[in-house]
């Protein structure tokens, strides 16, 4: 099952960092948050990634172009014309497809542009700026059990986010904005979609969080997987510092992998 990680936005709420690099390359510890997200997925055996690019996307291409070099020991033999020899490869068994989807394209439009890569079966999707300890194997099992077109991971981080309105058996009935700490469930990313859901993603100016998800909810084709564990976005510099502290103190709940 392929994994889409949205990585094309401007990241304006953390402009202190995104002035020079795209948001998914902002580091937690000494690794980009994109790397952390990919490690979560690959821990559960999902290693085939499709990443739509936009703002400063060339830097993400350069990161993966040199990933093998950065993660391994290397010998440069300049007496032999600069011959390079890699030792002790420490890279993960990832397949990474990077797709230019336009600098100003919205989230739904970016997914639509990936249609050629995603039409052959169900796919997973999340945002390139949030981490969680959600059990992805259980998420996929849940998605397969209900037979609907889409599953969204619902989380309860607090009162500053929009909330999902859930009906019987977790079917999403709609959305409401910014509950005041009332325990409402919100969209935490970590989706699973059937390929038929691509028809709802719209054009370049379509936000995934608006018409596509609203349309799926109206026809009872969007179901929430309730996750009561850890979830945290990196929207602001304060968020980054929170995640950085968790990582450096060894208390990062999203680190579900061993090495």
UniProtKB/TrEMBL annotation:
<keyword id="KW-0808">Transferase</keyword>
<keyword id="KW-0548">Nucleotidyltransferase</keyword>
<feature type="domain" description="Nucleotidyl transferase">
    <location>
        <begin position="2"/>
        <end position="223"/>
    </location>
</feature>
<dbReference type="InterPro" id="IPR013446">
    <property type="entry name" value="G1P_cyt_trans-like"/>
</dbReference>
<dbReference type="GO" id="GO:0009243">
    <property type="term" value="P:O antigen biosynthetic process"/>
</dbReference>
<protein>
    <submittedName>
        <fullName>Glucose-1-phosphate cytidylyltransferase</fullName>
    </submittedName>
</protein>
<dbReference type="Pfam" id="PF00483">
    <property type="entry name" value="NTP_transferase"/>
</dbReference>
<dbReference type="GO" id="GO:0047343">
    <property type="term" value="F:glucose-1-phosphate cytidylyltransferase activity"/>
</dbReference>
<dbReference type="InterPro" id="IPR029044">
    <property type="entry name" value="Nucleotide-diphossugar_trans"/>
</dbReference>
<dbReference type="InterPro" id="IPR046981">
    <property type="entry name" value="G1P_cyt_trans"/>
</dbReference>
<dbReference type="InterPro" id="IPR005835">
    <property type="entry name" value="NTP_transferase_dom"/>
</dbReference>
């Amino acid at each position: 099952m392929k994994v889409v990680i949205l990585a094309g936005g401007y990241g304006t709420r953390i402009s202190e960092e995104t002035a020079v690099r795209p948001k998914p390359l902002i580091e937690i510890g000494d690794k980009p948050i994109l790397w952390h997200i990919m490690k979560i997925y690959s821990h559960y055996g999902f290693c085939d990634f499709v990443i739509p690019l936009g703002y400063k996307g060339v830097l993400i291409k350069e990161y993966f172009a040199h990933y093998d070099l950065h993660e391994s020991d290397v010998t440069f033999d300049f007496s032999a014309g600069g011959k390079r020899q890699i030792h002790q490869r420490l890279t993960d068994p990832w397949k990474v497809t990077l797709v230019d989807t336009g600098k100003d394209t919205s989230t739904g439009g970016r997914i639509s542009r990936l249609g050629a890569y995603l039409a052959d079966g169900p796919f997973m999707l999340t945002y390139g700026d949030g981490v969680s300890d959600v059990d992805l194997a259980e998420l996929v099992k849940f998605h397969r059990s209900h037979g609907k077109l889409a599953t969204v991971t619902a989380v309860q981080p607090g009162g500053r986010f929009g909330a999902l309105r859930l009906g019987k058996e977790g079917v999403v009935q709609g959305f409401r904005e910014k509950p005041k700490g009332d325990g409402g469930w919100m969209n935490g990313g970590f989706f699973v979609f059937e390929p038929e859901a691509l028809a709802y993603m719209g054009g370049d100016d379509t936000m995934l969080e608006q018409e596509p998800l609203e349309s799926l909810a109206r026809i009872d084709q969007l179901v929430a997987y309730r996750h009561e564990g850890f979830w945290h976005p990196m929207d602001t510099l304060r968020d980054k510092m929170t995640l950085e502290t968790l990582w450096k103190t060894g208390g990062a709940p999203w680190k579900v992998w061993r090495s």
